[in-house]
Amino acid sequence: MEKLRLGVNIDHVATLRNARGGAAPDPVRAALLAEAAGADGITAHLREDRRHIRDADMAALRAALSIPLNFEMAATEEMARIALDIRPHAVCLVPEKREERTTEGGLEVAGDQNRLADYITPLREAGARVSLFVAPDPRQIEASARVGAAVVELHTGTYCDAVDAGETDAAAAELARLEAAAAQAAGLGLEVHAGHGLSYDSVTPIAAIPEVVELNVGHFLMGEALFRGLPAAMAEMRRLMVLARGAA
Ligand code: PXP
Questions:
Q1: In a mutational test of the pocket of ligand 1, which residue from 15, 103, 104 has the highest number of ligand atoms less than 8 Å from its CB?
Q2: What pLDDT digit, counting tens, does each position of 141-190 carry?
Q3: pLDDT by residue for the chain (248 residues), tens digit each?
Q4: Which residues are marked as active site?
Q5: Domains of the chain, earliest start first
Q6: Which residues contact 201 (CB under 8 A, 6 or more apart)?
């Protein structure tokens, strides 16, 4: 089975920084610490409202990191301009609503195919691996392959919410959807990533899905880092990922 990569999302270091309006804590410092602790990539989401990551953070991350930078963004003209300027390793397109606390659903790819195909082309030509953040829905997976994405990131939020709520039947049903979506996507030649809401309690079955080659984890890891430090928080996540992979 292919190695499972751990991508670390550092958005919420910026959330904490912005709560006081100063320069600390610095998300670039967190990204470099994650890199030193063995992260396979760093993800940052530049939202339209700049509530956490800001434009200058993106440029600084690109300049500082040796590991791949995954630029998460909405499929807007403004973001395309910024991404084409920064030239990250990867671009992950997500839906974005101003009033949401976090990215709620997956991207509507099936209903927006022509626009997304046109949107992806220049990003791809600039060398970015374009990923679409989608629900484990066969229509969205099929459409993702059709519009020219290289990667789909499966939205694990519904699964993680069910695990956190102790709803075992709902969690099992959603896990089955994620497993089927991963197999479908890989069959269509897409690379498969997964993320959103992952914690030590929910990561194992997701890490055991053989087609999944990258997990992106943010909020839980940063919370855990407050108690045991980021390298130790990542090490425990990595241990669970490796164990799940071995057990699968
Ligand atoms: N993947 C994508 C596409 C996301 O939008 C997010 C949240 O920004 C994550 C992964 C990480 O989610 P979490 O912060 O809940 O671990």
A1: 103
A2: 999 999 999 999 999 999 999 999 999 999 999 999 999 999 999 999 99
A3: 788 999 999 999 999 999 999 999 999 999 999 999 999 999 999 999 999 999 999 999 999 999 999 999 999 999 999 999 999 999 999 998 767 777 778 999 999 999 999 999 999 999 999 999 999 999 999 999 999 999 999 999 999 999 999 999 999 999 999 999 999 999 999 999 999 999 999 999 999 999 999 999 999 999 999 999 999 999 999 999 999 998 76
A4: 45, 72, 196
A5: 5-247 (3.20.20.70)
A6: 163, 164
Among candidate residues 89, 80, 87, the one with its CA nearest the CA of residue 119: 80
Q: Go through the chain and tell me how many residues it has.
A: 248
Phi-psi region of 172 (alpha: psi -120 to 50; beta: other; left: phi over 0): alpha
| 74 in contact with ligand 1, CB cutoff 6 A | no
In single-letter form, the type of residue at position 97 comes to: K
Q: Write the DSSP symbol of residue 110.
A: G
Residue 209, token pair as written in the block: 């899905």
User: 52 C-alpha vs ligand 1 centroid, how far in Å?
Assistant: 13
Which amino acid does the sequence have at 11?
Answer: D
C-beta of 41 in contact with ligand 1 (< 6 A): no
